[in-house]
Amino acid sequence: MSDFRLKVRAYCEKHDMVSKGDKVLIGVSGGPDSLALLHFFNERMHGLKVEAVHMDHGLRESSAEDAAYVKAYCQLHQIPFHFLQADVKGRMEQTGEGVQEAARKVRYAYFEKLMTETGAAVIMIGQHADDQVETILFRLMRGTSIRGAAGIQPVRSFGEGKMVRPFLSVTKSEIEQYCEREGLEPRRDPTNESDAYTRNRLRRHVIPLLKKENPLLHEAFERFSEELGEDNAWLEQEAEKALRDVCITKTSDRFHLSIGKLRTYGLPLQRRVIHLILNYLYAKVPTSLSSAHTRAILDLLKQAHPSGDLHLPESLTVTRSYEDGYFHFQRETHSSGYTYSIDKEQLVKLPDGHLLDVRAGKVVPDKPYLDLYYVSESFMPLTVRNRREGDKIRLPDGKGSKKIKDVFIEKKVPLKQRDDHPIVTAADGKVLWIPGLRKAPSDGKSAAYTLIYY
After folding, report:
1. Number of other residues whose CB lies within 10 A of the CB of residue 29
2. Between 38 and 324, whose confidence is greater?
3. Is the CB of residue 50 less than 8 Å from the CB of residue 74?
4. Would you state the pLDDT for residue 19?
């Protein structure tokens, strides 16, 4: 068995890429890499059900000839052949995407559709070890996260199965030698010889120089990619745990987190928590969102000033209010006001999401509560409402009073919660209680009612 076959087989086993009996779709452009991939898994790896997939992106004059070549090869070797004539330019006009992004999305959508239709468990792509080196260098040059710096992953979930890249274990030179040894005559893309593209310049000029310094460059990059990928996978698991810890509430378009809890985690996890929140809120993360936005969010959440806003793409706003951070798609408006009159036992659902349970006599709550207050008959009927200009509450020592506004500031109540926070007043309008925050002095009379704040 050749060294090439041993490398590819060992790599497949190491990453559990395929199992005997799997139906495998292989993306075939007709070039050396993909043709060698198709030949290898159809002729040299037994026990698999191999089918070829070719897509004409309509971007090159020779694309029709490529499609005809791949189809003829598949017919000759009795390999099921799938073909799509794609309209990449049309997608670019509709979405504003670049040519590479539009082509990849059209291609991957077709792969996923075919996997469902054929019942295939695996889709194979012919990227090789030199592609890995090129990708890592390209991403590092442009600025990337740890996930991006890890490069191309050998296996990832895709559709109802997985996408695998068995040739990441071999170099471009080894693939060319395989094609020559097996008598394969692949198609050649002339654009690969142009220095108009950054990736081509890396491939044609930079990587050869690096290989002169280290002939085993691809092995060094493979180890780097695998170790970084493992580190990143662990960090993302920890970030998921941290996200659950810092989350106070969340809806489909709003996320409320505890800044104090977020600060207990190291900066790498803080960054990933922010990424997870953004991925959760955005249906599709905007391409304009960058690492600079993540840094700006973290700066806002740790700044000395207790409040502030940051506006992100597509109207997402990050708001800091003391130790609370809010991610929301539109600036929340103040409550228009509310008033409830209480003169008997009842359960009131408050606009701030809490409950006020009013019970006759002095009782002990039957479940955990946030606060409670006893009132005498002389205070009835009570009014529960949101704050009003000039509201004050008497101090416990009887020496004057304090503005409700100052109580909120003292207790660090977030700005967005102040207009909905309940205020309980007596029949004469005097403030008796700010649930969870402060109580006015009692008049010493027996309790006619117990007010429980959940």
Report:
1. 22
2. 38
3. no
4. 93
Pair 247, 159 in one domain? no
Which residues touch 226 (CB under 8 Å, ≥6 apart)?
A: none
Decide if 8 contacts 170 (C-beta within 8 A).
yes
pLDDT digits (tens, 9 = 90+) for 388-399: 888 999 887 667
Q: How far apart are CA 100 and CA 92, in angstroms?
A: 10
Domain-located, residue 334 = no
| Cα separation of the two ends of the chain | 72
Total domains, the chain: 3
Does residue 359 sit in the same domain as residue 287? no
Measured in whole angstroms, the distance separating CA 286 from the mean position of its chain's CA atoms is 12
What does the alpha-carbon distance between residue 162 and residue 22 come to, in Å, rounded to a whole number? 12
388/304 Cα distance (integer angstroms): 29
Q: Rounded CA gap, 55 and 84, in Å? A: 5
Q: Distance between CA atoms of 16 and 355, rounded to whole angstroms?
A: 54
Place of tokens 């040519």: 99
pLDDT at 275: 93
Q: Which pLDDT does position 332 carry in this prediction?
A: 47
- Summary mean pLDDT of the chain: 89
Residue 281 CA to residue 325 CA, distance in Å, equals 14
Name the nearest CA neighbour of 327 among 376, 420, 259: 259
Note whether residue 310 is domain-resident.
yes
Q: Which amino acid is at 120?
A: A
Torsions phi, psi for 120 (to 5 deg): -70, 140
Q: What is the pTM of this model?
A: 0.68
For residues 439 and 447, the answer to whether their CB atoms sit within 8 Å is no
Question: What is the enclosing helix (H) or strand (E) of 360?
Answer: strand 355-360
pLDDT tens track for 75-127: 999 999 999 998 888 888 888 888 888 888 899 999 999 999 999 999 999 99
Average pLDDT over residues 209-225: 94
Residue linked to tokens 């075919």: 114
Percent of the chain at pLDDT exceeding 90: 53
Query: Rg of the chain's alpha carbons, rounded to an integer?
Result: 32
Q: Are residues 344 and 372 in the same domain?
A: yes
pLDDT tier for residue 335 given thresholds of 50, 70 and 90: low
The Cα angle at residue 205 between residues 204 and 208, in degrees rounded to 5: 90
